[in-house]
Design goal:
147 residues; three-stranded antiparallel β-sheet
Length: 147
């Protein structure tokens, strides 16, 4: 997605490997920032702080993301995020417009925020728990995820 980006965060349950298939991807990893082009790859281990930002001139950055070990919630988070964006329910940067949907995305993909954003953690946990109880997660999974 053009201009898609994530804030600095980390995951505790898995590593992520990004391989750029087309376009240019800016990746921050710990204290280093790199610009990846077609064929480049980078792996973020559990607990390593990172972010990514699509900075492609042609607006198209295609990447393959490998999560190890595999994580169904992470996969569903991506499918839901892309579905919301396609339906106009996410910002240009790919952030869900509804706060409850954003909280579910953060919960599903095991994102742990860093810096000032960390203070939103308890609120997001509460909102995600409430959205699950109200059936919002099930609704999003039925609409956007392969069963």
């Amino acid at each position: 997605m053009p201009n898609e980006m994530t804030p600095w965060h980390y995951h505790t349950l898995f590593s992520e490997t990004f391989e750029v298939l087309n376009g240019t991807l800016e990746v921050g990893l710990n204290s280093r920032v790199s610009w990846l082009k077609k064929g480049d790859r980078v792996t973020m281990k559990p607990n390593e702080k990172h972010y990514f930002h699509n900075i492609s001139d042609d607006d198209d950055c295609l990447m393959q993301v490998t999560v190890s070990p595999g994580n169904k919630n992470f996969e569903n988070a991506l499918l839901i995020s892309k579905g919301l964006a396609k339906d106009g329910l996410a910002s240009e940067a790919g952030i869900p417009k509804k706060l409850a949907d954003l909280a579910l995305f953060v919960y599903l993909n095991n994102s742990k925020m860093v810096g000032l954003q960390k203070i939103a953690g308890p609120l997001f946990k509460y909102l995600a728990t409430r959205a699950i109880k109200k059936g919002r997660l099930k609704e999003l999974e039925l609409k956007y995820c392969r069963q």
